[in-house]
Amino acid sequence: MRERSVTVDGLRLRVIEAVPDAERDDPVLMIHGVGGWAENWREVMPGVAASGRRAIALDLPGFGQSERPRRARYFDPERPFYARLIFALLDALGIQRAHVAGHSFGGGVAYTAAIWCPERTRSLTLVAPGGVGTEVARALRLFTLPGFGLLARLRQSERATREVVYSCFYDPSQCPEEVVAEAVRYGPTALGEIVSVLRASLTPFGVREDVRRPWIERRERYAGPALVAWGREDAILPARQVEDALRLAPQAEVRVIPSCGHLVMIEKPRELLEAMLPFLDRASEVVAARAV
């Protein structure tokens, strides 16, 4: 895989790519969750590239090695920071249309991007997406409380980070050691943005309705191909929220993966690819048929 920096709307973003030998005009952009980084998609990117598609993953602003934004209006319904950023990034990469995939918080980013600009979205893949329902693990909701960000910073350690990462797996023995090492590396610098993003998106009781509602009301803007994949034993965003996802995208295909926690693409990459690659093929056929 290759790595590079791209400047988008004045922000330096880090991007990693897996590029096939014979590339087709059918790229896939992958968006990580809160506190994540581009390599969260590392286990599935080679499989996507082997299908002839350019696989692209980014560090969202303030995460991984990307520059942190200032006073971002993350999901503002009129000028949404993330949705605009996604398509500005595609412009910088010379891509007109892409399949968009998002995990957890990144699923919310992908969903709003598809609604914001459906004509540039080939398909939408939501992996344990945030914001489709209102339930969120208590550990994330605590970040909305005054002073909790400082407390989290004071309690940072490799042991605490490992426990957080392991909580995202059904079977922690399936967690690669490099994922823990990357979390230890990126966690301290990302904490400020984690707090900002969570406070903008959550209350102590769940997803903020004033953030969620405007996008739900616009759900009919995107009627293209959609796939929802979830780990059955997800302890961060319960898999029962699949029903909420289907209310937002009734045309979506669904795959619930057993013996799997929140980080589906790391814990069960083969199973995710088994759902995702045929879906991308079908989605590409739909796009081609509409273009005729």
Account of the protein in words:
It is a single chain. Helices cover about 40% and strands about 15% of the residues. It is α/β, with parallel strands linked by helices and about 290 residues long. The strands form two sheets. An eight-stranded mixed beta sheet has the order 1-2-4-3-5-6-9-10, with helices on both faces. A two-stranded antiparallel sheet has the order 7-8. The chain starts with a strand and ends with a helix. The model has no long low-confidence stretch (mean pLDDT about 95).
Our count of domains comes out at 1
Secondary structure tally: strands: 10
Helix content: 40-55%
As a percent range, the share of strand residues is 15-25%
SSE string: EEEHEHEHEHHHHEEHEHEHH
Quote the distance from N terminus to C terminus: 34 Å
Features:
eight-stranded mixed beta sheet, 292 residues, two-stranded antiparallel sheet, alpha/beta, single chain, Rossmann fold
What's the layout of helices and strands?
Elements lengths: L1 E7 L2 E8 L9 E4 L13 H6 L4 E4 L22 H12 L5 E6 L1 H12 L4 E7 L10 H4 L6 H7 L3 H9 L10 H25 E2 L2 E2 L1 H8 L9 E6 L10 H7 L4 E5 L6 H4 L1 H23 L1
Parallel strand pairs: 3-4, 3-5, 5-6, 6-9, 9-10
Antiparallel strand pairs: 1-2, 2-4, 7-8
